[in-house]
Amino acid sequence: MRLDKFLKVSRLIKRRTMAKEVADQGRVLVNGLQAKAGTPVKPGDELTIQFGQKDVVVRVERMEENARKEDAATFYTVLKETRREQEDLF
């Protein structure tokens, strides 16, 4: 499954267009490598996603083409969530 579609179906990112933009900006890593929206993901892959000042690392557990809201959280496991310190501009 494409990275952008997985991010949308799993509800890690709300809209697929936003998932595509985030991936194409280089803010998503798949198994430690920078990924584009079309990068294939499979169960067992580790995704690192930069959300503003927060980095979230998740492991892909399973995937389906469509999912109900209640099932979306079972598609991944959060491994680590860290907050990046804001860099001083001066």
TrEMBL record:
CDD domains: S4. Keywords: Protein biosynthesis, RNA-binding, rRNA-binding, tRNA-binding. Pfam families: S4 (PF01479). GO terms for biological process: rescue of stalled ribosome. InterPro entries: RqcP (IPR025490), S4_RNA-bd (IPR002942), S4_RNA-bd_sf (IPR036986). GO terms for molecular function: ribosomal large subunit binding; rRNA binding; tRNA binding. Residues 1-62 form the RNA-binding S4 domain. Coiled coil: none annotated. The keyword Cell cycle does not apply. Associates with stalled 50S ribosomal subunits. Binds to RqcH, 23S rRNA and the P-site tRNA. Does not require RqcH for association with 50S subunits. Belongs to the RqcP family. Key component of the ribosome quality control system (RQC), a ribosome-associated complex that mediates the extraction of incompletely synthesized nascent chains from stalled ribosomes and their subsequent degradation. RqcH recruits Ala-charged tRNA, and with RqcP directs the elongation of stalled nascent chains on 50S ribosomal subunits, leading to non-templated C-terminal alanine extensions (Ala tail). The Ala tail promotes nascent chain degradation. RqcP is associated with the translocation-like movement of the peptidyl-tRNA from the A-site into the P-site. This is RQC P-site tRNA stabilizing factor.
